Amino acid sequence: MNTPLTVNFAAGAGGPWRIERIAACRGESLAPAARLDIVEGRQPVATDGFTWQLRGFTGELRYTTSPERKALVAVQAPLGRAEARCAALIPIRKNAAWWDLAQDERRTIFEERSRHIAIGHDYLPAVARRLHHCRGLGGPFDFLTWFEYAPEAESAFDAMLQRLRATEEWCYVEREVDVRLVRVDNEK
After folding, report:
1. Which is nearest to 111 in space by CA: 153, 61, 175?
2. What is the pTM of this model?
3. Pairwise CA distance, residues 54 & 91, whole Å
4. Does residue 23 lie in a domain region?
5. Which residue intervals of 53-168 are DSSP H helices?
6. pLDDT tens digits, residue range 81-113?
7. Which domain holds residue 154?
8. Is 130 a member of any domain?
């Protein structure tokens, strides 16, 4: 397993990503903000001057089998591609009923019945993604998923979300926020 990477998503007045919209899909939204900065690593992040911050860490793919993982790695694109100027940050919290299930029961719902991995695979390599775990860190979410894609792939990204949100797995989601962004780099 790779060493986990700590990632802080900090929304406020600065950062290379302009927030286009923040929409609550289920539950409470996040406060409006103009920009998003992403700080990777364990260095301390200032807490002043941000509208909100969400922290997570990369880790093992908990519901993915070895063959599924190999298939994903073979076709997934890296983050930071020049053409991927659009992004989405989707924080999710699942309900107590989900966490009361055993690991194998969650896996059955996640992939055997909801086809989460298979659905995501259909949109690779156009959509790059990285999952951040945050359950147990004291924040309001269990997972933070970061997606990057080129503007021409936005309709495909939306189709992927629509398919995922129609699955049995999403019956266990009690809070979901969809934050859409555009990379602006040096724009003032």
Report:
1. 61
2. 0.92
3. 9
4. no
5. 66-75, 96-100, 103-107, 116-121, 154-165
6. 999 999 999 999 999 999 999 999 999 999 999
7. 59-183
8. yes
Structure tokens at 48: 């002043």
Beta strands in the chain, from DSSP E residues, in sequence order:
6-12, 17-26, 35-40, 50-57, 86-94, 127-133, 143-149, 173-183
Which H or E run includes 137? none
For residue 53, the cross-strand partners are: 10
**Cα–Cα distance between 93 and 179 in angstroms, integer?**
15
pLDDT digits (tens, 9 = 90+) for 128-150: 999 999 998 999 999 999 999 99
CATH number reported for the structural domain that contains residue 137 in this entry: 3.30.70.3420
Q: What percent of the chain has pLDDT over 70?
A: 95
Task: Round to whole Å and give the CA distance between 79 and 164.
Answer: 21
Residue 125 lies in a domain: yes
Q: Is residue 35 within 8 Å of residue 18, measured between CB atoms?
A: yes
86 inside domain: yes
- How many domains, the chain? 1
Residue count of the chain, please give it: 188
